[in-house]
Structures are given as structure tokens and as C-alpha cells.
């Protein structure tokens, strides 16, 4: 029991240690020291003893049992969980009891020192133990969360008791807060509570805040308890400095605490009035070194998040302390710049907003806006992007002054060309925000605004003229003197300090009398030339001492000279003004002639309002002009690789369209092809854009809205291309399938088509086209009104408008497409009987217009024939009848023409007319025959083949049913079943049947379609005759139709194609008509897919069209070759260099096609890398006709696709080795330049060093040397490793030595040759230039396409080969050497410049001149191209 008798005044004092181990060491006789750290087995008993003593003595019992609790802390990791939890629970009770006892103790005014010391020691001990327990539990929880431990690791007893530390934290923090709210200063004799004690209590709070999970919503009560504890410490215990340092330190090391401390600061300001904490925190952050923040990115992230959120919560207080942060705007940390700019924005939005700002606030607002505008050109893309986002917020909240609109819009437009995708996206968003929140008008058409602005300017001028004669107030001379006096005094003081200069310059003006001098002084004062006026006044005082007002200018002290000069100048100025007052008042009415300062009288309200209106319209016009400028830039971004940029561009055009900008239609059209995008986000954006633009028209009734919708779509289709119409059809079909187009719209379209509603011819066409697009989504729209379409669109007036009839056929064709998708796999195809009204009308329409010269007949006939083959039963019979009727008409026309020509009185005019009719009829006949031939082929390979397969499948299913129903012998069934199963497993049954069907179709095409017994064969001689005799049949339309028909006939039979390929490619090579060459190029693309082995030897002729002089032919060839190459239908060896030359084509559209080709090609493994050596080899050849600068332009674009390190390394080695075989200066330059385009890598540098001997002797050429120096410059920028730097220095030294050695050798050689007699004058001999002939431009098809009056149209003989002793110099890559030389020796057409077409006008020529290539010029070597069978393709 002696242990329970506590002394009132202990002989020791408990000092809070810096570290727990300090309590084990004595620092003095009066300091408490832990006597013994108890072992683990004694801790449960000692804890129970302490608990028993606490029940009797209360909180002061800690004075005797502190060592037991210290031992628990010392062994915390090893102590059983139950003991730890009991210790925590006990200490909470102890401190709670002590807090309650302290309330009465501290209220006692007669507190004795011994009792105070007793409670102070107990308080320190209790708080120390509890706080250390809290920190220990928090550390243990954090460790468990890091290693993935959970509550399952706890003991069963703990789980049974339900102890969870996250739930125990809040009561402990609240207990400590309650304790701090007491007047603890009395325990320290009324002095300041020691900092160690406050740091002890608050330290556990900061320790808990380090836990990332504390920011979660479920821990909000704990978070708020900690915030209030720290708030009490700040308010009552002077914790400001420590809190500032601790908060900034934690922001630097823990990113998650930023929002927590923002919340804390807001509470401290609101509940505790601690506004000064914001200034302290901002000052502490502002004192951070910008260079350190740039290096410590994690610390900068914490500061930036804190600043941005704090400014959002307390913008006014942050604004008051903004000056301490501004220097970070010039620092290297882009995050800090973003945070400060965001804080400025919050101040602009919440504090510096409105028109009633004071002058100081307005100046601050303008400074912030200037800073934001300046940082739109920041060096870091993220800062530029952030500033644009901030401006978007400012504009959306209408906080941007109107005077700033134009400047910010200009900045946004300039950022559209930024290299950063994020900046571009945010610039588009800003422009969209400007449009949505513009204060000008809902319609921003520049044309309308210009007209309105001009009218209002005229009104303003009239008002100004009207009020121009009103009285004006003249500023008095005294007021003018007072205005200029301050500046004049400053100038006079400076002049008096430099009197010597006056003495040197006083003779500059020749002065005759005092009046002249006075006038000169006054004139200079009016021009604000005060220094010269003072000098002249001083000169007057010196020369005219007896003349007023220069008199009485005797010797004055320096102190009075200033007043003397001022009085003199005042007298001169005011006196001269007073004398001329009357004259100047008279001149005041002439604003151009006087220089007197006038102040207009107060303007009338009418004039003021008009000026404001004109300024408003001018601002609106400037804004609209800038938006229009942005349209062209944004429209080009719709095909960027970034999905987000494309989506923002689409959204921008939607907003622009809603504001009535006329140029927006171009962007709305340009986004149409994006409907085929593989990115779902882009496709959905396009659909949503058209939904917002067209499916929500304004109007009171459904009829009005339908008219508005149809009118908008009609405007979109005006002058639209075929591709645009196809894209729009896809969009409309999507809307129809989702029932987003109302029935009223369909009804209105039918009314316009049937002319029940008045409309123009163009609107009627558009109505049919829109109906066809809707039928693509719902075929019943057309199918239910088929008779209406036929009777109205294909009636007896069809010959008046074949374009309408063609659109009707397109609309009807959607029925067949819809039926195909709706029917099952084994369902019979949808067909109409031959007697259907549709086919009668189509046959009649084709026959009626056959002999007419209507240019729309041919496309209509092609569409009609295709429709017949799609929908008719037995279409070949219908088309055969049509061909017979048209052939009969053609024969009748020829007979009539012959009769007219045979008449003796027929004139030349009649003969010419009959010749024209003959050409039209032949053109229509040949075109119709080609259409029927092609559709017959399609019908056989698709419809007939599908029908054969359907019948076979139905038969097999029927046999299977019969086999299952039959009841034969078990053994027979078993054996048969096994055999069938084996055949089915091997896939032989269906595969052999499919092959048989395919062989049947092929046999029909090869042997029957063009057989002499068939109708189509009758037109083959006619087509061949027209193609073989271009001089006799010189009509361009006829030649184009015959060429196209030849291509279609070649599609039918491989034998026919092989026989006439020579004629086909001869016409493609030599025809003077670009339409013929373009048509044949398209046909050649189809032939290359159908018969690849036959067309492969003629591949060089396909590539030759890429150099055609006609832009349309080159563009067509680029499209065809792109398709063939990407589909792997032609070889792409060296000839692909012809595609590369299109990158420098003068036509921008062709350049775009070439770029798209190589972009697509780059997605196929290493395709560009594999082809690049061949391209370099051919284009660097002097005979290629590519100049050096165009070559570099091509290479820059191609090397963009070389991104892999292995590709770079291999190309470096190949290019270096090619220096050995290159023989011309130009080739050396090209190879060296290509090395500069490769990405700089360490392996690439090592390859150059390994192959240094290959190009060492070429370094004497300055151009080559400079290229290698450029490579080194790029390597230095990326080479940060020490080894890399050593390699670079070594390589540079070798380059310099070889270059200087080459210059020295050149100098010696020049000296020996030019100075044989010992002259000491060194002369450098320039390197030889490439011959002019090697630099000539490309000469594509000069004579063959320009001279129409040449000799016969026959293929010239081959040019003799050059002697082997003079081979053509060219760069040969290893990829070239891998191929056998025989593969590259294919015959090529050689077109002589002096040959061309034969006129065949002489009647003596009775034989037909053949235009085909000679037999020996026909490519004989073929490379088979394997084609997968239908069976393999299916698999």
C-alpha cells in the first residue's frame, strides 16, 4: 500500500522527449527517467495493476505506472493485440478523467504550485502515452495496408470485440480537442504553453493525415475532428508557424493532402477567423526555389493542387497575397505556372468581375488578363492548354470584358496551328465557347453584318455632319500652360544642369529680331519641343536684353533662373495666344486646318447612341471574320489522328452552323466521310452532329418542321459529289432505322416527287434521292410505292429528264438490297416477273432516248441495266431485247445517213450532221453493250452462283431428311454413316460441289458469253474496230465509250483479255484523250484483280500513268494504284518510286492521295522500310528527272515513317555502304541528306563509325560534310550518357580530319596545275557539276499526247540497248541485289517523240491500221500470282 501514497510535490519533472530512448537516459537529477523496461510476460499484470490504481486514485496514478505503459510502447510490435487495445482503451479513460478533473483545478484561483506541478506532470505523461499509442496504431495500420493485410490477420478476440482502429481514431482526436479547449496556460503559471506539448498533440494529427485513405468520404468525421483540433491549436496556442511549416512540408511529400488542407484552411478561416494562415502558407510556398520545384515534380504537384483549390474556395484572400507567388510565373515548373494562372482566373471570376469595379480593381483585372494572354504562347504545351481552358471558363461565365474579345479570339485562332494536340483541342473549345456566349448576334454572317454596318456608318456620318456646326469650347491659353507646365519644368531643370551644351548649339538658328525669336519659341512650345524653346529663350535673354519681354534678364542667381525662364516662356505663350484668339476661333470650324486644341461640346444622345451602335456592329463583324478564318483551319483537322481533336472540330462546326455562318456548310460536308470511320467515337459524333443540325428544325407544326428539314438537306446536296451523297445516305438510313425521321417528312417528299406540292426541278430530284436514302434503312418506303415511282418517274416524259429517271432507278434498287438483308440464307431471292410494268418502262425509256444526244442517257442506261439484272426474272432476255431494238435503230440511222450522202444535192452541213448522229448512236450502242456484258458477268458470278448454292443446300437438306427417315439395315446404316461422316469431316462434299459450281460459271464466261452464237459477240468487232482506228473514229465520247466497253468485255473471259491486252495498254499509253486514258486505268485496276497473272507483266504501264501530263489521269491512277498495292494485287518493287514522286505533284489533291497511300502502307508491318532503299536508288538517279530539292521534300515525308530502332540501324548501314557505288556528286549529297533524316540513336552512330571508310573520301565535299555535322548536332541533343558523348567527340574529330585532309589535297593539286612556276598563290578547284542533262525535269508522254497529226498509230520498235561498256550509274541497294536480273528485264513500251496517231483521212487507205504493240514488244515473262479459292476464303 506504500505505493499508493503519492507525494504532493514530486522531486522530478517529466520532460517531453525528442525520441523515446531519451527517457532511458538521465539529463539531470530533476528529470524523470524510466527505471526499467518491463519484459513482455509482466505487461498484462502491470496493466491490470495500473487499471486498479486508476479506479482508486484517478488520472494521477500515471505518475507511478508510467514505466509499465512505456514498456508497452517499447514492445509494441511484439505485444499481444489484446494488451495494446486494452492499453489504448485505458488511456482514453485516464485522459478523459484527467480532462474533467482539470476543469475544476484550473478554475480554482488559488491553485498552489505543488498541485500545478503534479497535474502538469500527469498531463504530460498521459498525453505522451496516448499520442504514442495513436501513432503506433496508425503506423501499424499503414504498414498492413501497404503489404496487403486486412482485418483477417487480427486475432479472434479482437474480431470478437469488434476493435477497428479506423473507428477508434475519431473519439481520441475529439478527446484531445476537448483537452486543448481548457485554459492550460495556468498549468504553465499563466505563461505560454510549451511548444513541445502542442507539437506532441498536433503531431499525431499530421501523422494520421499522411494516410491516403483519410480523404475518402467514409473518414470525413475523423478528418473534420483533426481539422478542428488544429484550429484550436492555431487559435489558442500560437501554432501558426509550426502549422505553416508542417503543411507546406506535407504538401511537398504527399499529393493526397492538398484537398484536405484546402478544406482545413476554409474551416480555420470560417470558424476560427484565421485568415492570416493563407498569407503565411502562400508566402512559404512563394519562397520555394523555382529550380528545385522544377526538379521535384511530386512536390510541385502538391503545391499546384493546393493553390488551385484554395483559390477556388477563398479567392479574395488569395488575391490579397498573390504578389508573393508571381515570381513563379517565370520559373521552370509549368505546374506552378498553371496553378497561379488558375488562381488568377478564380479571382477574375469571383472577385474582379462586373462593371462596378474600382479603378484599382480594374487595373488588377487588366493585369491578370494580360498575364493570361501572354501565357497562351508559353513554352510548355500544358500551360498553353491550361490557359485556353481558363479563358473558356471566363467566356462561359461572361467575365471577359468586351474590349478583350477580339484579342483573345485572335489568340485562340493562332493556337489552332499549335503542335500540341491538347492545345489545338482546347483552342477549338474556346472558339466554340466564344460562339455560344457571344454578345453580338445569333446570326454571324459576314455579308449581312457588312451591309448593316455600312448603313449604320452612313447614318452616323449624316448625324456628324448635322451636329458638326454646333458650338465648340476653346481651351484657354492659361489652361494649356497649366497642362504643359510640369513637363516643361522637368525639361528646364535638366537643361540648367547641362548649360555647356547650350553654349555649343546656340549658333544653329539664325535670329534676325526679337519677334521672329518669340514666334519660334511659341511654335516649339505648341509642338512640345520644350528643350529647343528653352534654348531659344536663353539666346533671346542674351541678345535682346533691352527688348521686352527679354528685358530685365540681368544677372540672376542659379536659384532664380528657373523662375525667370518659366515666367518668360509663360509671357510669350499666353501673350501670343491672346493676340491670335479671334483668328483661331474662326479657324476652329475647319478641323483640318487648325492645330488649336478644341473640346467638343457634349454630344447629343442620338449621336452617342449611333456611335455605340456602329462600334458594336464593327466588333461583331471583326468577330465573325475571325470565326470565318478559323473555319478553314478547323476543317483540316477533321482527319487528324487524334480522336479528341476530330470530335472537337465536329462540335465546333455544329455550333458555327447554328449561328448561321455561311461557310459552315463546307465543314458540315467535310465531316460526312467520317461516318465510315473505324473509331466509334468519331462515327457517333458525326451522327450526333447531323441529328442536332437537321433533325430538330424550328416550326410550330409538323408540316413546317418537315419543310425546314427537307430544305436543309436539299441545300446540303446542291453540287454535292457522289461520295458526299453516299455518306449522307448512310447517315439518313441510320436515322430512319432508329425512327428519328418523322412520317411527315416522307409524305412531303412523295408530294414533291409526284408534283402535288409545287417545287423546282432540282427539288424534285433531291426528293427522289432522299427517298432512296431512306429506303436504304427501310426498303418498304419505296417498296410500298413502287407503282408510283414507275408511273411518275418513268412515264412518257422520261426523255425530258434522264437524271430524274436515273435517281428513280437508284431508289428502286434499294428494294433488292433490302430484300437481300431481310431474307434468310436459303430463301429465294426477290425477283419481279419479266412482264412487270417496271421493265416495260425501262425498256421504253432506253429505246426512246437511244438516238438522242442527251448527255444523261448513258448514265441512265447503265443504272437501268443494273436494275434489270437486280430485280428481273431472266434479265438477259430483257436486255437482249433492248440491245436488239437499239441495234435496229442504229442500222436505220446508218441507212438514212447513207441515203442522204448518196443524194447529189446534199451539202456539207447535212453530211456533218449525219456524222454527228452516227457518232452519238455508235457511242450509245457501244456503251449499252458494255453495260450489258458487265452486268451479265456480275449476274452469273453472284446471282446464279448464289442460286446454285442455295439449290444444292436445299437438296442436301432434303436428302438428309430422307436419309434420317429411312429405315435400312443397321450394318448398312452404320457403314454408310461412317463414310459420310468421314467425308464431311474432311470437308470434301461441300468443297467439291463449290468448285464444280465455280468451274461451271467460269466455263460459261470463257466459252459461251462471247461465243459467235451469243448476242454480245456481235458487238465485239465493232468495239475493236473503233479502238483500233482512233483516226477514223475521232469523236472523244465515242473513243471513251469504246475503251470502257473493251475493258468490260475483257472482264468476261481470260482468253479474250489475253488476246486484247496489247491493244488495251497501247490505248492507255498513246491515246491523246485524257478521258480514254482515265477510263482504261480504272478498267485496268479491275482486270488486275480479276486476272492478276495476265496483267502482271504490264505493271510498268500502270505505274507510267502516274506521270501522265493530265491531272485527272494522274489522280485516277493514284487512286487505282493505291487500291491495288494495298490489296497486294501488284508488285511494289522499284516502281513504287512513281508513287513517291506524287508527293511533289503541283496538284494538292494528288499530294494528299500520295500521303494517304504511304500512311496506309506504313501500317503494314515494315512496308515503307522495305521499299525505301529502292525509292532512294531510283529517285537519286540523274535520269529520273527529280531535282535535288524535290528529292529532299519526298525523303522528308517518307522518313517520317521510320520509327523503329532496328530499321534506323539497318538503313544507316545501307546508306553508308552505298557511298562506295555512288559515282556522282548529286548521289553523294542525296545519301548524306537521307542520313540526317533518320532518328538519332547510339546504335546508328556506331554503325556510321563502323562504316566510316565508305564515306571518308566524300567528306571533302562541303555539302556532305555539313550533313554529317547536322547528324552530330541531333545526336548531341539526345546523347546524355558519358559514353555517348565520347563517341560523338571521336566521330566529330574523324570527320574534321578527313574534311581538312580533303581540302589540303585539293589545294595542293590546284597549286601544281595552276602555278607550275612556283607561284605561292593557292587556288581551290571547284568540284565538277552534274551535267545539265541529268537535271532535266520529267518529260511524261510528250509527243504521244500532244501531236495528233503524227504517223500511224502503231507501237514503235524497241530502242537499241546501250553498250555494256557504259552502264548507267545508279545507286543499287542490297534489296535490289537480292532479285535475279531477269526479273527486272521486262519489256517496256518505248514511246518515240516523233510518233503519234494516224489521221486515216486519205480515202486511198482501205485497210485498218492496227494500234497494237508488236509481238516482240509484248511482255512474255509472267509471274503467277496465287489467288485463294472461294473455299479457302470462306474458311
Provide the fold topology:
Elements: H1 43-57, H2 62-74, H3 81-107, H4 113-146, H5 156-161, H6 165-180, H7 195-209, H8 220-236, H9 240-253, H10 258-272, H11 276-286, H12 290-295, H13 297-313, H14 315-320, H15 334-350, H16 359-374, H17 381-396, H18 405-414, H19 421-436, H20 446-467, E1 472-474, H21 477-497, H22 499-505, H23 514-526, H24 530-543, H25 558-579, H26 581-587, E2 598-600, H27 605-635, H28 643-658, H29 664-670, H30 680-694, H31 702-717, H32 722-737, H33 743-753, H34 761-777, H35 780-783, H36 786-793, H37 802-822, H38 837-848, H39 857-871, H40 875-902, H41 908-965, H42 970-986, H43 988-1008, H44 1020-1028, H45 1036-1052, H46 1054-1070, H47 1074-1090, H48 1092-1095, H49 1099-1104, H50 1111-1126, H51 1137-1141, H52 1148-1162, H53 1167-1179, H54 1188-1198, H55 1205-1221, H56 1225-1237, H57 1242-1250, H58 1252-1255, H59 1262-1278, H60 1282-1314, H61 1342-1346, H62 1374-1377, H63 1430-1434
Antiparallel strand pairs: 1-2
Keywords summarizing the entry:
mainly alpha; two-stranded antiparallel ribbon; disordered N terminus; 1435 residues; disordered C terminus
Q: Would you write up a description of this structure?
A:
This protein is mostly helical. The radius of gyration is 48 Å and the shape is extended.
